[in-house]
From TrEMBL, chain A:
Localization in the cell: Cell membrane
Membrane topology, record value: Peripheral membrane protein
Pfam families: ABC_tran (PF00005)
Top-rank taxon: Bacteria
SMART domains: AAA
Gene Ontology terms for molecular function: ABC-type amino acid transporter activity; ATP binding; ATP hydrolysis activity
Gene: ehuA
Source species of the chain: Nesterenkonia sphaerica
Protein name: Ectoine/hydroxyectoine ABC transporter ATP-binding protein EhuA
Automatic annotation (TrEMBL), chain B:
Any Pfam family matching the protein: BPD_transp_1
Organism of this sequence: Nesterenkonia sphaerica
Compartments, record wording: Cell membrane
Record-linked InterPro entries: AA_ABC_transptr_permease_3TM, ArtM/GltK/GlnP/TcyL/YhdX-like, MetI-like, MetI-like_sf
UniProt-recorded name of the protein: Amino acid ABC transporter permease
Lineage: Bacteria, Bacillati, Actinomycetota, Actinomycetes, Micrococcales
Length: 275, 283, 240
């Protein structure tokens, strides 16, 4: 099992205390849907280049955390900082003040996300899916965008599918295109929400291997939600166990998976690992 | 029967009047085309506004939609024809004076605004039917609102809204017949009505009218179905137009005559019968 | 310049209006509005609502008959019924009114109006019923076969009750649609609301009040009904 290469030069899990600004920081985050408080007083940090896996029972709020970072959900309390800059609100005179839409958009271009259901655009070919945002959002030249798209398609093993329509691809192939589409934006932060849950078991490894390679060859910060514990163990520097909107326990994967401190974590792991 | 005895005479009259009938037909076609064009612009504008997350855009759009749908086409027409010009009569210096007296233009506006308001509901509903995952993906790629609308959301909603818009267009064609009561608008129905004078043959002039309107509606429907097939094909669902039209034995021809006129549109029929199942997460 | 069928269809040329007269009179005259309202409202109750209610009932029944005929008749006949229905659906009510008016000259115009509206909208409603009938699961038909139920009993006791429930909102929406189409009746001289409004306004060159009142009455009646139907539709959707 390859040990994760630590791109940030800091020990996994040591981000909280190290001097450089964390690339993601949650401060007293609270998220509720109506009366249902899903996250409360949530504090954690992710260092640049760190790969963090969130585990926990269903409904514990893992997806919600990723969606908050992607600004797909509205933050109802607290603050999220991306590279030290407030993502949705900042604190001024003790009050929460929303940041400008422009500022939010600027930060958002540094974040990419891969969805459980792929969400490729059905009205575009594979290539068009990949180059659309780099050209029209980042302002890259069409030529550069296409060249990059082809090299990414190469990387995800689908060089011949550039002109296909998403509907003609299998689930595994669609997810690989979705990964290429997210990477084409050169994100500093990549959010992966159960990216293999909608796939047939035999193609899961194809997708995971591509993500392993991305992890090995780049220093993109990753926030991962997955039920594939082997994958989590391979790629992450840190595992955080959630329950009831709190971090129950966090630590390096080897420790969490083999020797968790909390009873709650042990129970959860034995349930998902089936022993 | 009288009708069959008089048939030769009747035929002659139609021939004699064919020039005027053709002119009337041309007016009806123009009313349908220009009215349809205006209705489309109104539908897309109000539909996008009504689907906006901002109250200050949504609420005025809703009011306009409900107003122009709720008020009857005929009332709208009379209002434009009799009440609107009074503003110009009171203020003779206002510009565009000629336009207010142009009854053809007023007819186009009444048709466009009335059916456009129905169409707005179809546009709004079809936007909410685009899966929330598509909206989320555009956010994850930091696309601006105009960009995602133009390139991602609208093209997908397009295929969904086309059947409703097609039905509305046929409704508009049928509604345009009322324009014959307007002075100076000699559309097909008006010219037919003129025919009654020399013929004196009961109901046959109207029967001709029914057939011509039916043919027009049929042409509209087929055209819109071709558009819909093309839109679906672009989303990777269904065969391309070429495949449909090719005479190959495997061609996918809808059952029966090849034309589906099943008018299962409900959204044309009143407020809020949106076909959509809203999926939330829309921004 | 137009040959009018009746007095009612006579539309004044707006440019013939005496502009001086208009300029001297107020844009809106409350006294006249209150004066004209009762007549317009009576026409609304006596003609517009009457045609809508009876026409909708007729359409609801006839629509079901058409839908069932198309399903049970042998192929060529069903095909014929379907295309006659398509024909009626795809042609203007205005022309249909004129056609029937001259085909059945002895008939009273109001009756003709109700029949034409009823038949025209029946062709729409038959589509709604068809969709409703098609949404009855296959298993239900198979169950009636397994129970050796007669065809008539199957339709009456199993299919129609299930098909009808989901069709109620659509039928309501078509009723609203018909309501807003009733002014078309002016082409055959029925004194419906808009005609009466015009008759009240024309002699005194006052059109603002009467047509505004007519429009507001349409809004006031159709919008709340539409909202109610929308609620009903949502409730039915949840019930499934
Ligand atoms: N849009 C929403 N509206 C209301 N409640 C929501 C919404 N999204 C999530 N929730 C609630 O928030 C809680 C956390 O949901 P979330 O999807 O984040 O859980 P999760 O940890 O990702 O679970 P899973 O492992 O099943 O994906 C759940 O109780 C869920 O019901
Ligand atoms: Mg989840």
């Amino acid at each position: 099992m390859p040990t994760p290469t630590d791109a940030a030069g800091s020990e996994p899990g040591a981000a909280a205390s190290s001097a450089p600004t964390p690339v993601i920081e949650f401060v007293d985050v609270e998220k509720s849907f109506g009366n249902n408080v899903v996250l409360k007083d949530l504090n954690f940090q992710v260092a640049r280049g760190e790969r963090v896996t969130l585990i926990g029972p269903s409904g514990s709020g893992k997806t919600t955390i990723l969606r908050l970072v992607m600004t797909l959900e509205e933050l109802t309390g607290g603050y999220i900082y991306i590279d030290g800059q407030p993502l949705t609100h900042h604190k001024r005179d003790g009050k929460r003040v929303p940041v400008s839409k422009k500022e939010q958009k600027r930060l958002r271009t540094r974040i990419g996300m891969v969805f459980q259901q792929f969400n490729l655009f059905p009205n575009m070919t594979v290539l068009e899916n990949i180059i659309e945002a780099p050209i029209h959002v980042l302002g890259r030249s069409k030529k550069d965008a296409i060249a990059k798209a082809h090299s990414l398609l190469e990387q995800v093993g689908l060089p011949e599918k550039a002109d296909s329509h998403p509907s003609s691809l299998s689930g595994g192939q669609q997810q690989r295109v979705a990964i290429a589409r997210a990477l084409a934006m050169d994100p500093e932060i990549l959010l992966l929400d159960e990216v293999t849950s909608a796939l047939d078991p035999e193609v899961v490894d194809d997708v995971l291997n591509i993500l392993r390679e991305v992890a090995d060859t780049t220093n993109v910060t990753m926030l991962i939600v997955t039920h594939e514990m082997g994958f989590a163990r391979d790629v992450s520097h840190k595992v955080m166990m959630f329950d009831g909107g709190h971090v129950v326990e966090e630590g390096p994967p080897d420790k969490i998976f083999t020797n968790p401190e909390q009873e709650r974590t042990r129970k959860f792991l034995s349930a998902v690992l089936g022993h | 029967m009288e009708f069959f005895e008089d048939w030769p005479q009747y035929f002659e009259v139609v021939i004699n009047w064919s020039d005027r009938l053709m002119a009337g037909l041309w007016t009806t076609i123009q009313l349908t085309l220009f009215g349809g064009l205006l209705a489309f612009v109104v539908a897309v504008t109000l539909g996008l506004l009504a689907g906006s997350p901002h109250r200050w855009m949504r609420i005025p759009a809703r009011i306009l939609i409900e107003f122009f749908r709720g008020i009857s086409l005929v009332v709208l027409l009379f209002w434009l024809m009799f009440v609107l010009p009074q503003i110009w009569m009171r203020n003779p210096d206002l510009p565009f004076r000629d336009l207010v007296y142009n009854t053809f233009l007023l007819g186009v506006i009444a048709l466009g605004v009335n059916y456009g308001a129905y169409g707005a509901e179809a546009v709004r509903a079809s936007l909410t039917t685009v899966p929330s995952g598509q909206w989320e993906a555009t956010t994850a790629l930091s696309m601006s609102w105009p960009h995602k609308m133009r390139r991602i959301i609208f093209p997908q909603a397009w295929a969904l809204m086309l059947p409703s818009l097609a039905n509305l267009w046929v409704h508009l064609l049928k509604g345009s017949a009322i324009a014959y009561i307007m002075p100076f608008v000699s559309d097909f129905t008006a010219e037919l009505n003129q025919l009654r004078r020399p013929t004196d043959i009961w109901f046959s002039h109207a029967f001709i009218g029914l057939i011509v309107y039916f043919l027009l509606a049929l042409i509209l429907t087929i055209f819109m179905q071709a558009l819909e097939a093309r839109a679906k094909h672009k989303l990777g669902r269904g065969p391309s137009l070429k495949e449909i039209l090719s005479p190959a034995p495997k061609a996918v021809v809808p059952e029966g005559s090849g034309v589906k006129i099943a008018d299962s549109e409900q959204e044309a029929a009143g407020a809020g019968s949106a076909p959509a199942k809203p999926e939330g997460g829309v921004r | 310049m137009i040959l009018n069928l009746t007095q009612a269809a006579e539309i004044d040329d707006p440019s013939m209006v005496d502009e001086e007269e208009v300029r001297r009179s107020p844009f809106w005259d409350w006294d006249f509005a209150f004066d004209a309202f009762p007549d317009i409202f009576m026409a609304f109750l006596e003609v517009t609502l009457l045609v809508t209610v009876i026409g909708s009932l007729l359409a609801a029944v006839l629509g079901l008959v058409i839908a069932i005929l198309i399903m049970v008749l042998p192929k060529p006949l069903a095909w014929l019924v379907r295309w006659v229905a398509n024909f009626i659906r795809m042609t203007p009510i205005v022309v249909q009114l004129i056609f029937v008016f001259w085909a059945f000259v002895w008939m009273d115009a109001l009756t003709i109006g109700i029949i034409v509206f009823g038949v025209h909208y029946a062709t729409y409603m038959s589509e709604v019923y068809r969709a409703g009938i098609e949404s009855v699961p296959r298993g239900q038909w198979e169950a009636t076969t397994a129970l050796s139920m007669s065809a008539g009993r199957t339709w009456r006791k199993v299919v129609i009750p299930q098909a009808l429930r989901s069709t109620v909102p659509s039928l309501g929406n078509y009723a609203i649609s018909m309501f807003k189409d009733t002014p078309f009746l002016l082409v055959i001289g029925v004194a419906e609301m808009v005609t009466v409004a015009g008759e009240r306004g024309a002699p005194v060159f006052r059109t603002t009040e009467v047509y505004t009142i007519a429009g507001l009455l349409f809004l006031a009646a159709s919008y709340p009904t539409a909202v109610l139907i929308n609620r009903l539709e949502k409730r039915l959707a949840y019930a499934h």
